[in-house]
Structures are given as structure tokens and as C-alpha cells.
Write a structure and sequence with these properties.
By secondary structure, the protein is of the alpha+beta class. The chain contains four helices and twelve strands; from the N terminus they run ααααββββββββββββ. This is Peptidoglycan DD-metalloendopeptidase family protein.
Length: 395
């Protein structure tokens, strides 16, 4: 019995030791597992923080790229404006030179005809004077002297003297005419030569301006290529066009606010389907058709060759003549009673703010300023800020 109790006690102690050992082993095993899990969580958090940092860096880099792109695009758009203005300046100079060339050539032709007429008149005077000299020589001065010495025929002498005086006066008059013709011929010849030299100088200037025009045009082509390389999304393109349209509306609203109506401008209300189009060409985009997204064309885009004259549809006053983003070189004319006409994307502007223009008068030359990809004219008609369909006004 005592051995049994002793054995049972030993077994119990052994069991407790085993249990304690197992607990200790369990604790020893559990701690590394928890430690490993904590390490894994820490590593995962570090990984997430690293990924978050990478994302934030990517966002910052993308924002920086967008900023740089917008800045670069703004710079290119400013360069496009400078290119358009340079082309406008050269084109205006070329247009003036061509006008001077035509006027100078007309003056040369006029002087040449006048020179021919004076040469013919000179030849006639020379022939007449030669005849008079031959007649005087044939008559001889001895007859005149003989008559003076002959005292018997006083009446005949008096008539003969009067005759000789008449001949001398006529001869002197023809000589004076001859002198005038010679002087006029000399002046016309000098002026004719001056005009020819002026014409040659204009031709040299024209060649220089043509070279400058080609250089400006190549620069504009490079700028447009750089702009086209910066592809815009549909939403970006829509925002760009919307901003340009708002820019135009703000400019027109400011003009309308400061505009003082003129009594002699009666507007366009009675001229429906009676006005001529500002330029001959094909309509590429019609009023009211889709432009981009929900935006519509507020006017018409007329395709026409470069440098073709743009004419005002009706008399009025120029109230805007400058470069405007999205519209290039732009002219706006007030026709009175709240009516305005707008002419955009010109190559050069021929009128300045405040100029009065008459119906059909040239106001600009067709171009593609403002980034237009082909030459043409953008044309609008507005009444008190509201856009009107040009097809209802132009025949």
C-alpha cells in the first residue's frame, strides 16, 4: 500500500513535471511564432509604406509633368502668336509693296506715254521752225533793207514791215513753245528714270520680304508640329476650345460695354439674304454643327487660298483688330444697332481699330493664324451677343 502510494506520488510529480515542461515548451514555441508574425506585419507595413511613397512620388512626378507640359504648351502658344504676328507684318509689307509696284508701273507707263507725246510735239516744232528759217533765208534780209531805203512806196513799205514783224512774232512764239516742250520732256525723262529706279528698289525689297516670309512660315510650321506632338485628350481638347470660346465672348462683351452707337450705322436687320459672303470659298464647317463634345460651331469656316482678300459684309467701324488665342488674327466690325461681324484666322489685318469701312472693302487677307491646320476664314454674325446663322444673311 505504501509502495503504491509512493509510486502514485512519484507518477503525479512526474506528470506535473511533464505538464510543466510541455507548458514551457509551448511557451518557448509560441513566442517565436508571435515574433515572426510581428516581424511579418512590420515588413508588410514597411512594404505598404514604400508602395504608398512610390505612388505619391509618381503622382508628384505626373503633376510636375502636367505643369511642365502646360507651361511648355503655353510657351508654344505664345510662340505661335509671335509667328502669326511676324507673318502678318511681312505679308502686310508685301501687300503694300505689290500695291506700290502697280502704282509705280502705272506712273511709268503714264510718263512713257507723255514722253512720247512730247517727243512728237518737239519734232513738229523742229519741223515748223525749220520751215520758217528756210522761208526767211529764201526771202532774204536784203529785200527788207531795200524797202527801207526806197522812199517812193511808203504804204507798201509799211505793209511789208508789218508782215515781217508778224513773221518774227510767230517765230518767237514757236521758239518759246519749243523751249517749254524741251523743258517738259527733260523733266518727264528724269521722273521716268526715277520711277524705274524706284521700281527696281521695290523689287529688291519684295525679294527680301519674300525670304523673311518663308522663314517666318517655316518657324510657324515648326511651332505647330511641336504643339501637335503634345496630344490632348478629348476632355482636354474640349476644355481648350471652351476656354477659347469664353475668351472670345469676354472680349466681345467688353467691346459691347464700351461701344458707343453711331447714328449713321443702321445695323443688318433689313439685309437678310442680301449680303455678300466676305470671301469666296467652300464652307468647311456650317453653323450649328458639332465642333467638339457638346460645343457647336457658332459661325462658319470657309476654305479659301492664302492671301485672298477678305471683304466686310457691310459698312461699319472696326472695334477689334488684333491676335486672340484660338482665333489668330481677328477683326470685329460694328454695324450699329447691336450687330457685329467677326473675321478670324487671317494672315494679316489691313484695318486698325477706329477705321471706318464700306461694304465690300478689303479688311484682311485669308490665312491660317491661331493654329488653323489649313487656310480659311472663320466668320460670325452676332446681334447683342447672340450668334446668328450667316447663311440667313449672306446670299
Amino acid at each position: 500500500m505504501r509502495s503504491f502510494i509512493h509510486s502514485h506520488f512519484l507518477n503525479k510529480q512526474l506528470l506535473q513535471i511533464v505538464i510543466t515542461s510541455l507548458i514551457m515548451l509551448s511557451l518557448l514555441y509560441t513566442y517565436p511564432v508571435k515574433a515572426a508574425k510581428n516581424n511579418d506585419n512590420e515588413n508588410a507595413q514597411q512594404l505598404h509604406r514604400a508602395k504608398l511613397s512610390d505612388v505619391q512620388k509618381a503622382i508628384a512626378e505626373q503633376e510636375s509633368n502636367i505643369f511642365d507640359t502646360n507651361k511648355q504648351r503655353s510657351s508654344l502658344e505664345q510662340q505661335l502668336k509671335n509667328d502669326d504676328l511676324a507673318i502678318a507684318k511681312v505679308t502686310k509689307a508685301i501687300n503694300k509693296i505689290e500695291l506700290d509696284l502697280r502704282n509705280t508701273q502705272q506712273e511709268i507707263n503714264k510718263l512713257a506715254a507723255e514722253k512720247t507725246q512730247l517727243t512728237i510735239a518737239k519734232q513738229k516744232q523742229e519741223t515748223l521752225l525749220a520751215q520758217q528759217l528756210r522761208s526767211a533765208y529764201t526771202t532774204g534780209q536784203h529785200d527788207y533793207l531795200k524797202l527801207l531805203l526806197n522812199q517812193d512806196q511808203s504804204e507798201k513799205i509799211q505793209r511789208t514791215i508789218s508782215y515781217y514783224q508778224y513773221l518774227n512774232q510767230a517765230r518767237i512764239k514757236e521758239i518759246d513753245k519749243f523751249k517749254v516742250i524741251i523743258e517738259q520732256l527733260s523733266n518727264v525723262t528724269i521722273e521716268h528714270q526715277n520711277q524705274i529706279e524706284h521700281l527696281n528698289q521695290l523689287k529688291v525689297e519684295q525679294l527680301q520680304q519674300d525670304a523673311e516670309f518663308r522663314a517666318s512660315k517655316n518657324q510657324r510650321k515648326t511651332t505647330l508640329q511641336q504643339l501637335s506632338n503634345q496630344l490632348l485628350s478629348s476632355q482636354q481638347q474640349l476644355n481648350k476650345l471652351k476656354a477659347e470660346e469664353n475668351n472670345l465672348n469676354q472680349a466681345l462683351n467688353k467691346l459691347a460695354a464700351i461701344l458707343q452707337a453711331e447714328i449713321d450705322l443702321t445695323g443688318l436687320s433689313k439685309l437678310k439674304r442680301k449680303l455678300s459672303w466676305p470671301v469666296k470659298g467652300n464652307i468647311l464647317h456650317s453653323f450649328g454643327t458639332n465642333k467638339q463634345g457638346y460645343l457647336k460651331w457658332k459661325g462658319v469656316l470657309i476654305g479659301a487660298p492664302l492671301s485672298r482678300q477678305v471683304q466686310t459684309i457691310h459698312n461699319g467701324t472696326v472695334i477689334f483688330s488684333d491676335w486672340l488665342k484660338g482665333y489668330g488674327l481677328l477683326t470685329v466690325i460694328d454695324h450699329g444697332s447691336g450687330y457685329m461681324s467677326l473675321y478670324a484666322h487671317n494672315q494679316t489685318l489691313l484695318k486698325s481699330v477706329g477705321d471706318r469701312v464700306e461694304t465690300g472693302e478689303p479688311i484682311a487677307l485669308v490665312g491660317q493664324s491661331g493654329g488653323l491646320d489649313q487656310s480659311g476664314l472663320y466668320f460670325e454674325i452676332r446681334h447683342r451677343g447672340k450668334v446668328l446663322n450667316p447663311k440667313l444673311w449672306c446670299k
